[in-house]
What does this fold into?
Amino acid sequence: MKIVVAIKQVPERDAPIHIAADGRWIEEGDLNYTINEPDAYALEEALQLKEKQGDAEVVVVSAGPERVQSTLREALAKGADRAIHIECDDLSTRDTLGVAQVLAETIKAESPDLILTGLQSDDLGLGQTGVVLAELLGIPHATIILQVEFSGAGLKVKRELEDGWFQHVEMPLPALLTIQSGGNKLRYATLMGIKKAKTKELKTVLAAEASAAATISMERVYLPEKQKKTEMLTGSPQEIAAKIVEKLKFEVRVI
Amino acid sequence: MIAGGLPSTATTRFFPGAFLLSNQQNIGTYGTLAEPGPLSAPEKIVLGLGILLAAALFLWRFRPILRNILRSKKDPGFKLSPLGPRIWDFFWEVLCQGKVIRQRPLPGLAHAFVFWGFLAFALVTLNHVATGFGIGFLSPYSLIGRFYFYFAAIWAVLVAVSITGLFIRRFFVRPVWLGRKVSYESGVIALLIFLLMVTYLGAFFVASGSTEVRLLWWAHILTLLAFLPLIPHTKHLHLVLSPVTVFLKNDGYSKIPPLTGDEDFGLVTGKDVTQLISLQTYSCVECGRCTEHCPAANTGKLLNPKEIVLGIRTYLNEFGPASEVPLLTESRIASPDNPPERYLSMEAAFECTTCGSCEFQCPVGIQHLPVIVGLRRGVTNTGVWEDTYGTKLFLALEKNGNALGLSSTERDKFLQRQAFPIFDGTQEYCLWLGCMGGYDPKGREIIADFARVMQYLGTSFGVLKKEKCTGDPARRLGNDLVFQTLAESGLKNFETAKVKKIVAICPHCVRTIATDWREFGIAPEIEHHSEFMARYKDRLPKQQGEKIVYHDPCYLGRYQDVYEEPRAVVEQAGTLVEAPRSRERSFCCGAGGGLAFLGEEKGERVSHVRARELAGTGAQVVGTACPFCNTMFRDALTAVSEAPPQLLDIAQLTARALPASQPSQGPHHSPVTGGAQ
Ligand code: SF4
Ligand code: SF4
It folds into this structure.
């Protein structure tokens, strides 16, 4: 049994974000990076499956510049067996299809039984990479997964729906799952893990050229702009009240 | 030796006894020590064989112990120098019995008399044996001999009385700390010591060369020979080992040794037990002083520091120092008191607040904290310890860099609200906030008030733009990865900011930065705010009236020997009242050792016990000098008292009397400070 976990490295949660000079991406120089939280849960799920399964191998894969190696090392320290770094400096200019293509090529060569990724990334939050990746690999997928269980030759998974509803799905292997945060308890990194990680394999491969033309291009990145517009409503009290109701209903849409 | 607490019987280090026998056969007069006269050849043979047999039995029982000690792992980084403190400790703790007497005066004195008596008897005993072979060197007829025998006789009386007292204490008074199981061996030892004294004293009342004196002589030597093989058994071994233990103990209090090499994760198996730990566990006299003062053991937890020490000893006896059996198991505990469960327990190891009372109290120089923290390291560094709260704490420290798990922007906002100046190298002090000062509402009040005090005194300071936890909770919970990461980034932070002097409101921060970080580099000079304020005590506003009971934080008192400074500050702010247990004997608030961040305690809360004691003094205010003590008592005081006393840090006690507007540093001053009315 081989489980691949696709991991993204993202800026730390409370990092002060500055926009790069060209306005198309953020200033990366002074940021601290960490593992994307849903991916941490995906890794945890993989490690727990391995512990239950016994003879599984967990391979972590991450695309990005050299800095992503620190996140891969952390994953090795937490218990992954092997890591692959897909060297790629233009990640931010690729759309989800482009990123999925980069990942797909490397992951295909591994021919895993199960692929896990986080549901979405903490930085862009597009939530598509996993799904597109499954499509590119031609395997079934399920999203927003809280629990995974092997059953016979396939899987039983629990999906989170809205409003406290869950869906239980059975599916064949190989498959791809996107994991929701909070389904498991994360483990802490240990000294022994870090020491062991030093002896584990971390392979670097070059990303393939984008094989399809990008479907979207980044035009402008900006911080939420504060807008303060004051509009004076005039008229009799009744008229003002009626205007407020209308605005609340149709503009702000809270009633 | 000397373990004070074990006043019980076994207490000798040198063997008493020996009457003086002169070589010539004088008929002695009554009132001097009578001599038995020359022994016959068969008697000499019996004596010689007896000595050989006793020595052989002694060695037979002592050898496996010695072997376990010697075969344990070498203590990395052990240095004998500087010798000065070692000699002083030996002098004070062994020869003067300082700790033994000070912490348990009556039994301590009794123990000291027995010990000193034995020292006095060393010469007498040697001479006693020598006389048997016709080569005695002290004559009751020489001036020196006569004097010395009388001198020894006085000690003999003191020893006999003391050992009787200790016997009564152990078998009739039966203090709970000595353990539930009655130790009959201790009774036998007491009896033998008593006999040794009586047989010596008896020789003053019989004639030299008489049958009586010969009988007494033999009784004395046989008692002595019976005593010898008993020593290596269990706690009586302290007669031999504890002087060595006291002399060799590691420098530093609650010292956590650096890990060495890639395979060292702390105390995982017998292989990790070092020679010093081994020696110490074999020296334990089972006096229970450690347990008597342990906040965990006193509030219904599983932890009992004596059992930790004995647990390691039991492990060594059973598996030896080369064993790969894990030291900690889920939830068992070793002890002669609980014989079926022989090993050490993980639950117990994580109940320790690292208050250090045990280590402070132990009369034979046993250092519990390196062992307890070592055991925690063994299971935390390897990921064996699984605890929801513990994991949450570690993840918070990994990710957010503070123990409260809040975003660091929270601290930024607080700095802005307070308009604290950022340290830029021009100010005298770097004011260290710590997790409590930076993120906890009550801790922030303390920091804000202390900042007001500094401004009032006209001392320039700045705070660091970014600050991470010192790693104290990770350190004490045995997570070396998190601790090391935080220590290294902290050192770098100070270096980049060019900090020269730091002042902090948290004794844990001070201890960790000043002592624990040393493994990775030297931090700038750091002091606790009590030390800072005490220096200016004459300039602090003098307040009248209110009775303030001061609680010594473990990490300030026992850990750093700072007792007078916070008291000086309190005395300016009101009338100082002492808690029943104060200074070195102060009772923990329950927060240390990372426990503030772990889940609900088993049994009674440590903080409640202490809060009751503090409230019971009738003081209107409880004065603290540690933000952790402060948080612990906040709930505890209301829980244990109808009309709880006010709870204020020494900075708040001072700041409340400051004039509302400060001279000089307008912009620094912030009126927020809830604590200071
Ligand atoms: S470890 Fe405890 S029981 Fe043993 S000698 Fe020290 S104080 Fe006494
Ligand atoms: S350090 Fe304190 S809590 Fe821990 S075992 Fe010793 S006395 Fe008990």
User: Anything to note?
Assistant: The interface with chain B takes residues 12-14, 34, 185-195 of chain A (CB under 8 Å). The radius of gyration of chain A is 22 Å. The domain at 2-211 of chain A is CATH 3.40.50.620 (Rossmann fold). Residues B 293-296, 303, 305, 352-358, 368-369, 372 surround iron/sulfur cluster (ligand 2) (CB under 6 Å).
